[in-house]
Amino acid sequence: MKSVLITGILGQDGAYLAKFLLKKGYRVFGVYRRLSTPNFWRLHYLDIFNKIELIPADILDSASLSTALKKSQPKEVYNLAAQSFVGVSFDQPLYTSEATGLGTMRILDEIKKFDNKIKFYQASSSEMFGNEKSIKKNEDTQFHPASPYAIAKVFAHHTTNFYKESYGMFCTSGILFNHESPIRGLEFVTRKVTNGIAKISLGIEKTLHLGNLSAVRDWGYAPEYVEGMYLMMKQKRPDNFVLGTDESHSIKELVAEACKIGGVSVKSIISSKENFRINDVKHLQGDYKKARKQLGWKPKTKFKKLIKIMVEEDISRWERWGKREIFPWDAFTSGEDSAFNKKS
Ligand code: NDP
Ligand code: GDR
């Protein structure tokens, strides 16, 4: 049985990718960092916790990555671990560079020493394009990063290309536009909106404070994007691919759609200046023609369906919480206790 190692397995993409690769018959190992409270909820939510093998390691610590490679003996490594929140990268630029940027070089260098035949996937990002002027971005669009996160991702992207070109390693980068799901982290705008609107619709909260509502993003559905990662690793030659939906919507449109589904007035959603970023990317839209042609990949779940899936799931979770049900979920355990206090 082929082994695969995923860094960032406890995150949104890591969990969906693990589930997908298990179905393909892989033995799945996952790197996770030690925390005072384990954060395994997504693996439980997808019902794969007992099917994967977890190895404690950190992308800041080369020795632990070397041990993870020895323990898992992988044929493929997917590097998804990162400080992935753009907003926080303005407050923690050095940590973000260490984890999101240098972390990629650390793992690639350990792979080169351990077995340079291992195939490597890097989680590159549409944020690398930043405020570059063109409307639609593809693999040839210039990078113009607008945050410490994006700068770190550009470094990691070039590092991945460098190991491919200089050491002949199979290194591929997926330049992924925003992709979301009911297991998206709560701080990202889609989930913040769907979770917030679920609470307003059930009378748990009255308002939701957001930041810049005029930013525009290309949002797809995460389970479909991990399939694209896998297809990139199955190519004869390593290459870089954009995955997106080629559609874009503003945060304002996201709010309007989510409010409609949740039966909530848009007046409950407030744009607060203190939530604005120092520098924000205005418009991102992904031209995925190359992925469609070479990988046969295309997005199926578009904006309205995606928001519906997420709002309905968050409403259902808060309803179950109201009935004192226990189930794998993040909102209640990550600072949502104020809602609990109000209710009880
Ligand atoms: P998440 O933030 O959900 O997951 C990131 C994972 O990385 C988490 O499990 C986190 O661990 C782990 N991690 C963070 N720091 C370290 C560390 N020092 N050592 C080991 N593990 C660490 O992100 P997503 O799943 O959404 O994204 C996956 C990757 O794809 C990221 O690299 C992201 O930047 C990139 N990306 C994501 C896009 C998206 O729209 N989702 C689009 C383009 C790129 P813990 O659980 O302990 O916090
Ligand atoms: P992004 O996602 O920065 O694109 O990075 P996020 O959902 O955080 O922001 C998208 C846009 O929404 C605006 N916004 C808000 N954002 C957050 N988080 N919270 C708010 O209250 C809010 N109000 C408005 C932001 O200013 C921004 O313009 C995500 C991450 O997954 C990255 O890791 C990944 O690389 C990129 O997507 C592609």
Characterise the protein shown here.
The protein has twelve helices and 13 strands. The chain is of the alpha/beta class and 344 residues long. Helix 2 links the parallel strand 2 and strand 3. NADPH dihydro-nicotinamide-adenine-dinucleotide phosphate binds next to helix 1 and strand 5.
How do you describe this structure in short?
The chain has about 350 residues and is α/β, with parallel strands linked by helices.
Structural key phrases:
single chain; 344 residues; UDP-galactose 4-epimerase, domain 1; 7-stranded parallel beta sheet; two-stranded parallel ribbon; 12 helices; globular; disordered C terminus
Order of helices and strands: EHEHEHEHHEHEEHEEEHEEHEHHH
Named at the architecture level, the CATH assignment of the domain at 180-218 and 246-341 is Alpha-Beta Complex
The general outline is globular
User: Largest sheet, order of strands side by side?
Assistant: 3-2-1-4-5-6-11
Tell me the fraction of residues in β-strands, as a range: 5-15%
The CATH superfamily of the domain at 180-218 and 246-341 appears as UDP-galactose 4-epimerase, domain 1
What CATH calls the topology of the domain at 180-218 and 246-341 is: UDP-galactose 4-epimerase, domain 1
Helix content range: 40-55%
Low-confidence stretches: 337-344
Q: Can you count the helices?
A: 12
Hetero groups:
NADPH dihydro-nicotinamide-adenine-dinucleotide phosphate, guanosine-5'-diphosphate-rhamnose
Distance between the termini: 51 Å
Rg, Cα atoms, Å: 20 Å
The overall strand count is: 13
